[in-house]
Every structure is written in structure tokens, then in C-alpha cells.
Amino acid sequence: MQSTAFRLSPPLPSLRSPSLHSRRSGACYDAVRASAVAGSPDDVPPGLAARCFPPRRWSSVSPSSSSSSSRLRPWSGVGGFGCEREGRSRSLEARATSVPEAAGDGEKSGSVARTLELGLLFGFWYLFNIYFNIYNKQVLKVYHYPATVTMVQFAVGSVLVLFMWTFNLYKRPNVSRSQLVAIVPLAVVHTLGNLFTNMSLGKVAVSFTHTIKAMEPFFSVILSAMFLAEIPTLWVVGSLVPIVGGVALASLTEASFNWVGFWSAMASNLSNQSRNVLSKKVMVKKEESMDNITLFSIITIMSFIIQFPATCYLEGFKFTPGYFELAAKSGLNVKQVLVRSLLAALCFHAYQQVSLSFLCYSYKYLLLNLDFEWN
Fold it and tell me: Which subcellular locations apply to this protein (predicted)?
């Protein structure tokens, strides 16, 4: 008589793959790996087997076809595919272990690349700043017109900005009228800050000017408390004491001390920090926001427009061919002054752009690291 069979398990299409089943169940035990290692699912602890192993099928057989006393025997689901399933599980296991390693290597290489880029930006920032001070001092020693020198620097910067916008080297901004009105105060204090810096460099040594400019954090704390209501802590106030004391000591012992150079450097500190404080109050609305490089580019053009009439009023037209011809007769090396003025202006605009890029990029890098730590 033909034996009759009945099923006590779900039909075949409802069977899940062991890897998917174990992944969805949340167990940390791989049933396929256990079957390959232990040889039998019976060697697996009952608690894990109930959660990880796929459902079994049971068949009823006739007594003539089996010598066992039991009428039920376990059946492995899909017979004849044990080796294929084992090979598939091994390939899946190798793939699962290789992906985190590749991801870790990618994150490590990306972190190294970002660190190298930050280091290069920081190095170029200092390099351009050093050469700007050298060329600027050489020009101001023989050409005693700081307002004209400042105007030339803004003019060269404006030409570079327009060049980048014209040839799409940097995104051309779409600025509204309200934004331009808000940027005007920033351009005014930016112009004053650079003018006072050049006045100080023309009167005293470069080292002494930058020693006085080390007082910028002092002015930043005072102006932030006055206009932004940011009250400093005692630790911040205490950290300013050695700065103020060091500047005072350097001023008393400076051989090239000059009151005009000293107060010009102090006025430069006040102007630059006023610009930083005002920039926090400009473009507060999200729809009016712009990146720092675009903001600096617009400020540079505005500063040239402001500085040009101020230079003509303060120093006259000391940049015409007729004046340079007279100056050459009096012993001025006009070609050297023009070349170094151009180099100083290029270095000035370059270090300003690189410094903003460095600050923006370092801020994004900090956010990425914080996001990685939180996750």
C-alpha cells in the first residue's frame, strides 16, 4: 500500500533563509554556522535553536519503510542542497566580515586626508601672512603713504574677486539690497582696521605691531559683553591678565616704541574686533545667510569703494605716473615699490581667503568628529 504523508510545518515558500532569519530575530547566534561546525542542530542549546534554526518538516512513513519504532522522523527541509547552502553561508560570512574592515579603512583614510588638508591650509595661512608683513614693511619704509598702500591692497583684492566671479571659479552671489545695507558697517570697520595696521607698520617694527595686536582677545571680550550680552567667566577674564601684562611689558622695553604706531595698532584691534562682533549680528535670518568667503569678497569691494575717496582726501593722488616720475628723480626705486606693493596685496588677499577657508573647514571637521562620536 502506498504510504500517506502529512505535514506539520508551513509550506516550502514560507521558509526563510537562515541568515535572514537570524538577522531579523536579533540573536547573536548563526544557525548555519552552527550546523557546519557542530554537525547537527541537536548540539545547539535549545534556547538558541528555537530562535535561530529554520522550521523543521516532519513526515509520516509506513512501518515497512522504516525499522525505527517511531513513526516520525526529522527532515532537513530541502534535501540535497546541504553543501550549496554551507558554501553560501561561508561566502556570506566572509562578505559580512570584510565590509566593516573596508568601511573602517575608508573612514581612516578620509580622516587622514582631512587632517592633511587642514595642515596645508594652516601652513599657507602663515606663509602668506609672513610674506605680506615682509613686503608691506619694505614698501612702507620707503613709501610713507599708508592710505594709498591700503587702497592698492583693496584694489588688487577686488580685481581677484571679480576675476573669480567672472570665470565661475567661485559661485557668484545673489545679494539683496537689505544684505548690502547690512554689510556696509562691516566694510567700514574692515577698512579702518587695515588702514590703522598699515599706519602702525609704517611707524614701528613689525614685531611690535603684532605684539600690540595680541590684545585682540581683550577687545573681543569687552565688545561681546557690550553689544552681544555675552558675559565672560572668571576663567576668561583671568586668561586675559597675562596677555595685557605681556603687551605692557613689551611696550615699555621696545626700542622702536612710537605713540603713533602704538595707538594705531590699538585702533586696529578695536576695528577688527568690532567687525567680528558686527558680523555675528548680520545675516541672522536663514534665508539671508551666505558663506564667509562670499561675505569677505563683498566686503573687499566695498572697502575699496570707501578707501578710494578717503585716500584722495588724506594723501592726494600719490599713485599717478607723474608723481612716480618725480619720486624716481629723488631716488625712489619705483619699479621695486610697485612690484612689492603688488606682492603684498596678493599675499594679503590670499592669507585672508585661506584663513576663512581654514576656519570654515575646521568647523565642519569638528562637526563630523562630534557626529561620529555621538553615533
Answer: Membrane
CA geometry: angle 157, 341, 171, nearest 5 deg: 15
Of the candidates 250, 292, 255, 251, which has an alpha carbon nearest to the alpha carbon of residue 275?
292
Q: Give the CA angle between residues 144, 148, 152 to the nearest 5°.
A: 125
> In the predicted model, is pLDDT for residue 58 greater than 90?
no
Per the CB < 8 A criterion, the answer to whether 87 and 32 are in contact is: no
Structural domains of the chain, count = 2
Which pLDDT belongs to residue 327?
Answer: 87
Q: Name the residue range of residue 57's domain.
A: 12-97
Mean per-residue pLDDT for 128-145? 93
Query: Percentage of the chain surpassing pLDDT 70?
Result: 64
CA distance 375 to 372: 5
Average pLDDT, the chain: 74
CA 352/CA 265 separation, integer angstroms: 18
Task: Provide the sign of the torsion angle of the four alpha carbons 174, 180, 186, 191, taken in this order.
Answer: positive
Put simply, whether the predicted model's pTM sits higher than 0.70 gets the answer no
**Are residues 227 and 80 located together in one domain of the fold?**
no
Residue 198: phi and psi, rounded to 5, are -65, -35
